[in-house]
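look at this:
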Amino acid sequence: MTNSDIADILKAYADLSELHGENPFKIKSFTSASFRIDKLIEPLFGKTLQELENTEGIGKSIAQKLVQIFETNTFPELTQLIESTPAGVRQIMRIKGIGPKKVSIIWKEMQIESIGELLYACKENRLAQYKGFGLKTQEAIIKQIEFMFASAGQFHYAKIYPIANELMQQLQQLESVEKISFTGEFYRKMETLSCVEILVGTSDALFFAEEFESFFEFPYSEETFQIEAFSFKIRVCKTPEFAYQLFQFGSNQNHAAKVLERIGSDRKNFESELEIYQAANMAFVHPEMREDRGEIVRAIENTLPNLITYSDLKGPLHNHSTYSDGLHSIETMADYCVKQGYEYLGMADHSKSAFYANGLSEERVMQQLSEIAQLNQKYAGTFKIFTGIESDILYDGNLDYANDLLKAFDYVVASVHSILKMNEEKAMSRLIKAIENPYTTILGHPTGRLLLMREGYPINHHKIIDACAANGVIMELNANPYRLDMDWRYIDYALNKGVMISINPDAHEVEGFYDMFFGVAVARKGGLMKEMCFNAQSVSYLETHFKKRKV
């Protein structure tokens, strides 16, 4: 055990003590001891109690703790503090730039107990609203957390997307590159990735390696390399083999094997992936769907869906303004949507139970409804703002407004935000009761998951979908890249049950509308078509649907 190791243990005790509001003099004593021990040249490990007491800067009390540390790597008071602090909170304490006092606010006031929850709170601009934080601190925390996740070997598709596309543009400039494409998980738009793979077709692999090394100033290798802590891998093949290699590496292994089995041994150099499917006597399967989840049979039968596209969307639903925890006013968000060519905007600020997000009291609801009515006069005939609310599903399954107020909205997004630690029985009863509420229009982020951060509460997806089908409730595909909830793997079941999907950005600022791009990506993986996407429908369609729900 080095002096640095010992110093870290003492500092951990000081930080946890401060987190729990213990004696400040004791905290200062351990902090000072940690600093001095870390600077000592002579090793302390193995010294006797008397030798430690005689060491400059180490008092009797600290010396006794050091003897315990030498024997057990800890001491009783530290063990007790560790046991009384959630593991997720201890992880938060490792983030650079936030000390124990700020962590205490995050834990005890914001009720956040994991790094994932903290990141999501930052993305929703909640942290900046607390005294002592601010936007700069919030942004710094976001960067620290995202770097931690990236360094762990997994990252979100949305996070790597701009970096991957920039690399692709740079590679396309190389003279030796004749054909190029993303492949692997990125090509199939998996929601989380371990690596971004790129396939290069060239007639001169040696020339490509030389150009690569000259342009990027590090040696080319088919091994993975890092950019901003993200993993990339470049494969090189001869140009005539490009389509075949792209298909192989750009498909789930089982999918590729089943298609190639239908072709047999006559595998020529294909000009395109389309030619491969034609040779197998199948309809073309888009990369997003190549997961061996029934698409092979549908391609053989030519019954694949006409997948939704980003341009199909008519407007963003489920958005937050300055009325709750958003950064922009309703008018700013509406004007932005008009410029983007959308037909409508749906506001769904937080309801009163979401006190941490400045949820709307009944009085403030009426103020917002009045403002939206005035704005709709401004946009009359060209654009519409729908009045909605993201109403919290309480622990007993009720929504947190009286029915008289709920019916004042055009629509209601019902979501769970609190007491997420539930077994499946409790989660199911809570959600189904909310689904059966006649004022629930859309079930928001059904599992509460945060990808790579927090597992969702356990639910029986099929039964939840069945309940939505029975009650005419739309299911949300929350397009926030950290949610992408509902899980795309259950979209096909929902469609078969006649349940529509709404690709909602959950935007807290105008830039958040673009998250629908990532929602569309995973919706395509699930086979969603325009006709079954709620916010790909017209203003008149939504107006009619909302009116029917009020009858």
Notes: The chain has four domains: 1-85, 98-148, 155-300, 310-550. The two ends are 72 Å apart (CA to CA). The first helix runs from residue 3 to 19.
